[in-house]
Amino acid sequence: MRVLLSAQQATFSRAGEPVFQPVDIEVCGGGMTVIRGDNGAGKTTLLRLLAGILRPSSGRVTRRAGISFMGHGSAVKSELTCRENLDFRRRFAPSRSGMDTSAALARVGLAGHGLRPAITLSAGQKRRLGLACLLVAPTAIWILDEPYASLDDRGCGLVDELLASHLGRDGAVVLSTHQRLPQVKPGAQQLVVKRFRALS
Amino acid sequence: MNLNAMRALLLRDLRLAIRHGGESLMPLIFLFAVIILVPLGIGPGPNLLSSIAPGMIWVAALLASLLPLEQLFRPDLDDGTLEQWWVGGRFPVSLVGIRLFSHWLVTGVPVIAFAPLAAEMLYLPDGALPVLLASLLLGTPILSLVGGLAAALTLGTNRGSVLLSILVFPIVVPVLIFATGAVSAAADDLPARAHLGLLGALLILAVTLVPLTATAALRLNIE
């Protein structure tokens, strides 16, 4: 299976000091890696590093396919409606296999909410809208920061379904999570991020 | 970075500006507040007003362009849409350029469009109007660019607006001097070409350097 995303001894330094201990990672098409670690261990920093938002201060990160990144904020504009948010994402990164806006909204359980301004959505619904963004502008690599955060049980189930179908299409996934592990077959590789210097 | 992404961002920025309505009209309201209030304060004599008109219109345009700067990148930083520009290891100069262009469309263009009315209200000699418009056309993009750079630099600081104004003012002083110099010269029937030429040179410098440096500054702030 083709390696889509890899990192060799990669780390990111803030104020001259590495945030986490150097990481080796290799994610193939159809493969998933779950990043675990304590609060403040550097999970989000690692994900942003893998997504290309940050540049490694040492080591190397190699990406061989398009990337989607969903961070804490879900990258949703609250002044725009759900539909406008998705239309923007589709136009921002056009791809031929992108799901239709209405279909994507229905898939994440927001059917009928298309004309609602995103500011009126609950945290969980915003998360769902963020997931819909992954569907309208599909890429091979998904990097998801705490995708289960603020979602109810059905929402968590939805994330698992989306992950399973993405992996089934030979996509690659890297995600971080606190409590829940993705219930997707085959099981995911796990990687524990450790702080570079333990808190005293 | 492809043209689709640039077009999508421009259309979304303009849509957001329309949706903010009143906030987007602030620069224009500000311009007219100054132009209506100053004559009330110093007296409405045509001779006095026509001699201070170039400076007043330009100072108002300058301050008006500063108003929305704080909001240029911050909402995008807060909701996570800014970091999306970097996903995939890109260096999004073109997107930063589009954002600055849309700032000019929203703050600079309305001021240019209503400048003839402002000029009329302040008894600016008719012959100076084309030069006033030319100076605004060359100068307001510089204000947006320099302001955008300052906004990018101060994005990481709390209450960046004070720092932002301190950063912007010294850099835009030459713009103010050459622009008002051009309009005053035209009002006195003197050639204004030299002033406008220098403004053009400043614009070229800003267009060349600012998107690159602002992108680098933003990158520091999202790290």
What does it look like?
- The complex is a heterodimer of chains A (200) and B (223).
- With 200 residues, chain A is an alpha/beta fold.
- Helices cover 28% and strands 24% of the residues of chain A.
- In chain A, the strands form three sheets. Chain A has a five-stranded parallel β-sheet, with helices on both faces. A three-stranded antiparallel β-sheet of chain A has the order 4-1-6, covered by helices on one side.
- In chain A, β8 (141-145), α5 (153-168) and β9 (172-176) form a beta-alpha-beta unit.
- In chain A, 45% of the residues are buried.
- The mean pLDDT of chain A is 88.
- Chain B has helices at residues 3-20, 22-42, 46-66, 74-79, 93-121, 129-153, 160-187, 193-222.
- In chain B, α2 (22-42) packs antiparallel against α3, α2 (22-42) packs parallel to α5 (93-121) and α5 runs antiparallel to α6 (129-153).
- The two termini of chain B are 21 Å apart.
- Chain B is 80% helix and 0% strand.
- Chain B is elongated and about 60 Å long.
- Chain B has 223 residues and is mostly helical.
Q: Report, as a whole number of angstroms, the end-to-end distance of chain B.
A: 21 Å
Question: What's the multimeric state?
Answer: heterodimer
Share of β-strand residues of chain A: 15-25%
Q: Largest inter-chain interface? A: A-B, 29 and 24 residues
Could you tell me the mean pLDDT of chain A?
88
Assign a percent range to the helix content of chain B. Answer: over 70%
Order of helices and strands of chain B: HHHHHHHH
Radius of gyration of chain A: 17 Å
